[in-house]
Amino acid sequence: MSDCVRAVRVLGLLAALALLGAACGPPGEGAGDEEADAEATEEDLEEVADDVDEDEAAEVTAELEDVDEDAIVVHDAGWESLWVINEIFAHIVEEGYGHPVEEVTMSTPFLQQALPDGDADVATEMWCINHQDYCDAAFADGSIEQVGTVFSESEQGWYVPRYVIEGDEDRGIEPMAPDLEHVDDLPEHADLFEDPERPGESRLISGITGWDSTNLSNAKVYAYGLDEPFNSQDVGSAAAFDAEIVSAYEDGEPILFYYWAPSWIMAELDLVLLDEPEWTPECDEALAEAAEDPSSAPEEAGCAFAGGEVEQAMNPDLRERAPEVAEMLERMYVGDEPINEALAYFEQEDADADEAARWYLEEFDDWHEWVDDDEVVERVEEALGA
Hints:
The chain is α/β, with parallel strands linked by helices.
């Protein structure tokens, strides 16, 4: 795809998405009632248009204009595991297969347009558990293709430092809320989590601005009836989010926040996940419906976040452009413990994502099976040793 074509297509994403469901054709085989599935697919794919910021569209357009027309474009949404996995992918694809790889920063709503439209080629972490309706629709009609699982044990929810509940004798911290176990216990401890910007009010840090998980967190505040004592606050970037958590942790201060695993925060800090009612498909559906208008969340939308496998996805055209890369993606499984160790290295050694990816490729050899080609392995290892 030429730079000019990329730019024109990105500028037209907002208008073009309304036609996306029809343009992509009927659902794939085994998708159930074709007419009903086609309607659901079109609705789910069109919904993301409302979530894309026009300023972001201009910024992404500018990035894409500088992308090599032969490059495989992977998306960067600003969290550490994604950075490292993107670099692992890039090392193998560039050094082993000879295809250039470029990262383009885009939010999840933008990715949900760019991936089926061909302006992004690969999502190495597609957290479908947070936007399942979209993934089901896009996978069903073939506009994007699921190509495996990158790790199998994800976790997300609301956390507090362990010292809030148990104290920390070594640091001279007394337990602040020894009976805090469940989200239902939060009202009686609301004063503990004072909002620094609104004295006398309490705060939950709900996540990164624009993320699906942040919208779900905001909705759960209302579903649990916590909107009276708690302000739900999002943060503009992952770096600012992590900095606020680490600052509070190092000072031994109470803090309540959404987070996820795998991440270096989970590897480095001793945190406790608060219990919630068990996740159910019915609750998940109610929560997803309330995410666009959190204050509308009904009580039945209150349950734990979904957890489990995190998928990889690609634009189907990649099979024609780079079939060996598409086949490698189908086998690419980074794994739970390896990615946690790589993220710990990332933080402890003050490394960048490229250095953490190199460390992963040198420490683990599972990736040899992904490429299934001794010559590719040799080229990657030679580049690592250079």
